[in-house]
Design a protein that fits this description.
mainly alpha
């Protein structure tokens, strides 16, 4: 499965656009299997947060869920990594 936005390149290593100061592109950089794994981890963290009554774990679970739904990973973007498949020409 291909990720949308893969053909676009980052303006710099962090994905910041030179046209807009402080605007960060949320270009998809997680493939389908990575998104499923993150979704499972988010659901487990949500259960743990409920069981332990922990706001810290709850916020972490929401962030992992956001990554799974958007197909974007902050750490991947900082490191310049992309696990999406590319189109063959």
């Amino acid at each position: 499965m291909l990720c949308e936005g893969r053909e676009r390149e980052y303006d710099d290593a962090l994905g910041y656009s030179k046209s807009g100061i402080g605007q960060m592109k949320l270009t998809k950089n997680i493939d389908f299997s990575g998104r499923i794994i993150r979704l499972i981890i988010a659901l487990l963290l949500l259960g743990l947060a409920y069981w332990r009554s922990s706001w810290v774990i709850f916020v972490l679970a929401l962030f992992v869920l956001f990554e799974a739904l958007m197909g974007w990973c902050a750490l991947y973007q900082i490191l310049g990594k992309n696990s999406c498949l590319t189109k063959r020409k």
